[in-house]
Every structure is written in C-alpha cells, then in structure tokens.
Amino acid sequence: MAVAWHQFAATVWQIASESAIWVIISLVVGGLVHEFLPSSRFRVFLNRRGHSAMGGAIVFGACLPICSCGVIPLAVSLFKSGIRIGPVMAFAAATPIINPAAVILSLALLGPQITIAYVLMGLVLPYLLGVMAERWGSHNSRTLLASDDSSAGMADCCSTAVSCCDSDTTSAPNAVASEDTHSLGVRITAGLRWGLSDLGPTIAFYMLIGVLIAGMIAAFLPPSWVDTYLRESHIVALLAAAVLGASIYVCAVAHIPLVATLLAAGAAPGVAIVFLVTGTATNLPELIALYNTIGKRTVILYAISLIIGAMITGLLVNLWLMPGFSPVFDPMASLELLDAGEQLQPTVGTAPSLLATVALALLALLGSWRRAVAYIGRRRSSDGCCSD
Amino acid sequence: MNLQSRTLASMNNSPSVQILQRCLFVFLLCATTLATAEALKEGAATPGASSMDPVPLASDQHQALTRLEELDLLSQGLVGKAAAGATPAQNFRIETRMYRELLRQTMLADRQRPEAEQLPQHLLLEMVRMSALLHAAADCKTGYVIICPPDLMSQLRAQQARVSQALLLARGKQK
What secondary structure letter does DSSP report for B141? Predict the structure, then answer.
C-alpha cells in the first residue's frame, strides 16, 4: 500500500511538474490568441472549409514543442475564439504527437522505417480526427466553458448554465468590436486576464482531476505492463498499448528511447508505434479537460477514433515490417542525431518549473473554489426562486 | 552613521571604484573559467572521471573493450542512482553527458582501426541506446532530484543487463 501511495504521489508530481510550465505559457498565449485572433486574417484562414485550414493547423501544431497537457489551453482558446472544431481537434492531436526534436530522435533510435510510419501517422491521424470532429463533433458547445468561471454571476442565476454564459461567449465578437476603441496595452491586459483568470482556473481544475486519476492508474498498474503488452504483436496487445497509452502521460521525446529499447528487445514495431502515438497524442488530464470545455461528443469521438486509427496503423506497420524487423543503423550517426534532437528540445530550469507548478496548483485551487461557490449558489437559487 | 553610509555610497559610485570593480569581475571570470577548464582536463570535475583518460588512437580492441567496460561500470552506477531517487539532478546530468562523450571518443578511436579489429556494431548500438535512456532519466527531475517512472526504470535495468551481456560476449569472442 505504501508503495502504491508513493507511486501515486510521484506520478501526480511528475505530470504536474513536467507539464506546468507549458500549461502556463499556453494559457498566456491562449489569452492573447483569444483577444487578437478574432480580428485577424488567421481566423479567416483557419475557418476555411477544405484541406488548407486543417493542413495549416496540423503543420502549425507539428512545429510547436508542446506536450498533450500544454496544448489544452491553446486548443480551448482557439475554439472559443471562433475557430471551427475540425482544425482545433487536428491541432490538438498533431501538436503533442509530432515535433522536430521527436522526429530526429526517432530517426536516431528507431530507424528510418519506423520514423516514416511515425511521421505519416502523426500527420494523417490528426487530419482524420479533425475531419471526423468536423462532421460528427459538437459544434454548439462554445457556451459550456464559462459556466465554471462566472461564479459571481452564477450565484443568483436561476436559468440554465448556457444562458448564464452568454455574456462570456460574446467576448470574441466583443474583441472585434473593441479593437478600434482600446489600445494595444489594454487588449493585451484583457487577453492575459482572460487566459490566466478565466480559462486558467477551469483548465487547471479539470487537469487536477485528470492528474489524480492518472496517478491512481499508475499506482495500480503493475510495473511489468510494458513488457507484458508491448512485446506481443496480436490485436489484444495493440488494443492494450493504445488504451494504456491514451490513459497515461507520455511525452514523445522522453519515451522514444524507451520504445527503442523495447524494439531492440524484440517488441513488435506496430505495437511500439501505437503506444508512442496514442501515448503522446492524449492522456487523461487532457481528455477530461477537453471533455468539459470543448464538448463531450467531440472528445468521445476523438478518443475512440484515435485508438481505432492507431490500431489500424499498428497492424499495417506490423504487416510491413514483420517478421524479422530489427532497427540497424550506424551508431556514430545515431549519436550525432541524438545530440541534434536534444538541442532542439527546449529545456526548462528547475526553479521556473517549480514556480509554474505552484502557479498551476493555485489556479486549480481557485477553479475548485469557484466551482464550489457556483454550486452552492445554484443550490440556493434552486431552493429559492427556481422552485417557484 | 548617515554621513558614513553616504560617504560609502559616493565612493561606490565614483568612476575609479567602478573601474576597479569591473577589473575584479573580469579577473574572477577568467580565473573561474581557467580553473574549470583545468579541472575538466584533469578529469577532477566528476568522481570516476580520472580513470577515463582520452582514448589513444592506436589502442587495440582489447583496450577499447576495457574502455567500454569502464563505461559499463559508470552506467551501472547511474542506473543505481536513478533507482535511489535521491540523486541531485545536476550531478546526474553531468555524469550522463560524460558517459555520452566518452562513448563518442571510444567510437571515434574505433573508427581509426582496420575494420577487422573494430568493436562489434551491435554492442555500440546497445550503448547508444543506453546513453539515450540515461538522458531520458536525466530529464525526470522531480524538483532537484532524479525520480524515474517505473516503466523507464525497468527499461533502464533491462538495457543495462543487455549492455553487460553484449560486453561479456564481445570479450568471450576476443579470447
């Protein structure tokens, strides 16, 4: 029990400390995006119907070195700035799966064949996810988010949460209207306030729930699960790798060496790539946060399509490379590529990382407090005016 | 008291004192850089480094294998430190970097020899993978110490065992 508890605490701390700095940066950028995007040409580009908007979102996401937790605020702010759900989900999937450092590391350790499969999967899968979200996802959920944060207004609001949030959802058009009337400084302040004060507590609250559940899973998952599931090549192993990868927190750059050693020990290449892609594309904190902010139907569709899509790709990779696959390459070139990949990877000092973790924890506490106040307010008002 | 502090403040602001301060700063900077460079050259910066001098280009395969065995010992120590969960992140990072640089030196020296005398490629590949895993472990800094997740820890141990086994095989073949 003590070991499980230690594992739980270590996992919670690890996810929080690794992702906190990126979440905070993403909140700041997300706030600015929310303030400036509605009035920019980029919004028009991203809202185009067709391949260009989806492709643009994927390429933009693939260049950013952000993990699956750090991408949440950016994706939510894009969505709340009026961008269509398809490009938003394509961006949310492509950003953590693929980045320049991960591709170079993959080339160094997994070999050219697996890297080709990884890059193709990292570009095609987000596109398909975006198309599916566009067609079947929830388009009218832009009003859900602010119900958490407009706690002051919620207390005396007797109608539905959606109607209470109308004031917030109009912020994007308001931003357009206020463009002429406010100076740049005022708009930057407004964007930062929205990112850190409105969006931040909501995202941090849902991330906290997700991180706690991820910690529980890590505590009760046997340490040998990697060897148990990732060494096989059958469909159950592919499913297990996909589901477990989608649940736990996996960073592409950190897990490529792990996948490389598994491959060297005889793991099926398809299973390894499924674990790498589903693991990096999503995790429980991200899914829970998106589920509550972007829309339930979209996120369920996203998770299921990701798992099925990754499994199909895994099967195809197994058919292509098995039997007898062994990544063989020049050790010296591999070492040089490792260095190049690690230089591309941004490093964050311990002190900024700790500060960001504390800031994220405070935001989560603020989010919890606001939800509690809103809940009590709803209960009181439903006992009072709504009961009439 | 006030007069004294004002006098000190005016002395601090005077151009001559500022020039002296700058000279002292430049001197300290040069001295620190030279001392660090000297320490690194002598291998005194990190424990265990003194036993690993730069590889002579004309060393034979036996010497190269001995070098790799020393690296194996270093990685064993690093795996132990990662498992302990209390190693300062900075030290771990430096030693991980040292592992990679010494491996690079050994591989570069190995390339100078005739192909028949070169080290087995699969052994070097295993050590490159070990280096990548150690770097991944160095990134698992929880606060100021290294704490690796269980999946990474189990792979570190498995890879360490593979490297040691590959070394034993290589040594056996040489005999």
Answer: E
